[in-house]
């Protein structure tokens, strides 16, 4: 429980995912947690709730480990409020992107890939994050991302690849915005804003 005090946002995110997934494995339906058209009308909480259920033990285990490894380091530097805002933003962006271009998806992978994209930038540009990721993690993420696409398009296993990709892009842009030099400070916030506008149109009238 010491971790809950030091990293409350990361701890509660992983704990909620474990709890929701565990309850779903008892046979209870978790459709109310999954993204649907009603989220755009009167259930916006689905944009975030859908990251908590997981489809299998391995799905949950990998996501929890990945989130813990990167999330705790980020929360240690930025604190719970800013970390919570990052998690929330990545959840909304990745869920909306998956819904707009593919369908519904579940799990923390969108946020995890967002943290990975952000960590790639911070690892090189911010000494506080030096060593947060290594070549092995980069290779593993690339291989996993490609494998997920293959599994999806061969109908072996449906995976939320759009959430993965949009999470990485959103996290990378966020990381660049954090370490931006003076002449760059206008570009990356504008790029993030443009991404949100395009996402909003794609999830709404142009879905």
Description:
By secondary structure, this protein is mostly helical. It has eight helices and no strands. The model has no long low-confidence stretch (mean pLDDT 84).
Which descriptors would you attach to this protein?
207 residues, mainly alpha, 69% helix, globular
Our estimate of the beta-strand percent is: under 5%
Biggest sheet character? none
Shape assignment: globular
Mean pLDDT: 84
Query: What is the total tally of β strands?
Result: 0
What order do the helices and strands follow? Answer: HHHHHHHH
Number of helices: 8
Low-confidence stretches: none
Structural class: mainly alpha
The level of helicity is: 55-70%
Report the radius of gyration as a whole number of Å: 17 Å
Question: Ends: how far apart?
Answer: 43 Å
In short:
The chain has 207 residues and is mainly α.
List the helices and strands and how they pair.
Elements: H1 2-6, H2 8-24, H3 46-49, H4 57-101, H5 109-125, H6 135-153, H7 161-178, H8 187-203
């Amino acid at each position: 429980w010491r971790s809950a005090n030091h990293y409350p946002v990361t701890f509660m995110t992983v704990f909620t995912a474990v709890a929701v997934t565990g309850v779903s494995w008892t046979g209870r339906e978790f459709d109310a947690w999954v993204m649907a058209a009603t989220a755009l009308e009167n259930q916006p909480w689905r944009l975030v709730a859908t990251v908590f259920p997981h489809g299998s033990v391995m799905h949950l285990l990998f996501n929890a480990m990945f989130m813990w490894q990167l999330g705790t380091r980020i929360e240690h530097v930025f604190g719970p409020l800013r970390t919570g805002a990052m998690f929330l933003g990545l959840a909304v962006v990745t869920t909306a992107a998956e819904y707009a271009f593919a369908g519904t998806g579940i799990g923390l992978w969108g946020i995890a890939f967002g943290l990975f994209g952000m960590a790639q930038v911070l690892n090189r540009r911010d000494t506080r994050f030096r060593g947060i990721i290594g070549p092995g993690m980069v290779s593993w993420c690339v291989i996993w991302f490609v494998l997920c696409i293959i599994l999806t398009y061969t109908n072996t296993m449906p995976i939320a690849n759009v959430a993965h990709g949009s999470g990485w892009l959103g996290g990378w842009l966020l990381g660049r915005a954090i370490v931006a030099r003076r002449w760059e400070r206008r570009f990356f916030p504008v790029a993030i804003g443009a991404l949100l506008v395009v996402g909003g149109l794609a999830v709404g009238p142009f879905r």
